[in-house]
Design a protein that fits this description.
235 residues, mainly alpha, 9 helices, elongated
Length: 235
C-alpha cells in the first residue's frame, strides 16, 4: 500500500505535506494552548474583550456595542463569502486540470508531476478553505449569540443594589462568547495564510516547505512581537 502511495507521491512531496500539517497544527497549539499563548495577541485581546463587557454592563444605551458587534460580523461575513468563491474556483480547477498542468510546466522551478498528485494538491487546497469556511461561519453564529446577550443582559450600576456576583457572571459570559467568536475568526484567517503556503506546492515541494516556514514566522511576529501587541499590552 505504501509503495503504491509513493509511486504517486514522492518522498519529497510527502515530507513537505507532513511539514505543512505539523507547522499548521503546531502553531495553532503554540498560539492558543501553550504557556507562551498568555503573552500573545489573542490572550491580550481577550482581556480587552472582558473590559469591554464590564463597560457595557454600565451603559443603559447599548447601540455603540451593537454597532461594534455588527462591524465584527460584517468582517467575518466578508471572509465567509469570499471563501465560498475560492472553494468554487478550486472545484472548477479540477474540471480543467489538464490545461492547468500544461500552463504550470513553463513556470520557473516547476517540475513534471502526475495528474493524481495534482488532484491530491487540489484536495489539500480544497480542505484548507473548507476548514476556513466552517470557522468563519461558526464565528458568525457566535457573534449572533453575542448580540442576543447584549440585548438580554440587564444594566448594572454601582450603588443601585445590583448583585455584584451576577454582574461578574454576566461580564465573563459576554467576554467569553466574544473571545470564542474571535478565536474562530482567527483560526479561519490562519487557514488563509496556510492556504497561500499550500499554493506553493503546485510549483515545487521544497518551495512549499519554505513558504510554510515563512508563514509560521510571519504569524509568530504578528501574534507575539508586533507593535499592535505592544500597544494593547501597554499598561
Amino acid at each position: 500500500m505504501l509503495s503504491g502511495l509513493f509511486s504517486v507521491v514522492s518522498y519529497a512531496d510527502a515530507a513537505a505535506l507532513a511539514w505543512f500539517l505539523f507547522v499548521w497544527v503546531g502553531y495553532g497549539w503554540l498560539s492558543e494552548h501553550s504557556r507562551w499563548a498568555r503573552r500573545g495577541l489573542a490572550d491580550v485581546g481577550d482581556r480587552h474583550r472582558l473590559a469591554w463587557a464590564w463597560q457595557m454592563l454600565r451603559r443603559e444605551v447599548r447601540m455603540p456595542d451593537a454597532a461594534l458587534v455588527g462591524n465584527l460580523m460584517q468582517s467575518v461575513s466578508f471572509y465567509a463569502n469570499t471563501t465560498i468563491y475560492i472553494i468554487a474556483g478550486v472545484l472548477a480547477l479540477l474540471g480543467t486540470l489538464d490545461q492547468v498542468i500544461s500552463f504550470t510546466e513553463d513556470l520557473p522551478f516547476a517540475r513534471e508531476t502526475s495528474r493524481a498528485l495534482w488532484e491530491i494538491k487540489l484536495v489539500l487546497l480544497f480542505g484548507v478553505f473548507v476548514f476556513a469556511y466552517f470557522k468563519f461561519t461558526w464565528a458568525l453564529r457566535q457573534f449572533n449569540l453575542l448580540s442576543i446577550l447584549i440585548g438580554s443582559t440587564p444594566v448594572f450600576k454601582d450603588g443601585d443594589g445590583s448583585d455584584p456576583g451576577l454582574a461578574e457572571v454576566s461580564a465573563r459570559r459576554l467576554g467569553r462568547v466574544n473571545s470564542l467568536a474571535g478565536d474562530e475568526f482567527n483560526r479561519g484567517i490562519r487557514a488563509y495564510y496556510f492556504g497561500l503556503a499550500a499554493v506553493a506546492w503546485f510549483v515545487q515541494p521544497w518551495i512549499f516547505v519554505a513558504m510554510t516556514s515563512l508563514i509560521a514566522v510571519v504569524l509568530y511576529r504578528r501574534d507575539f512581537t508586533s507593535p499592535a501587541l505592544i500597544a494593547l499590552r501597554d499598561d
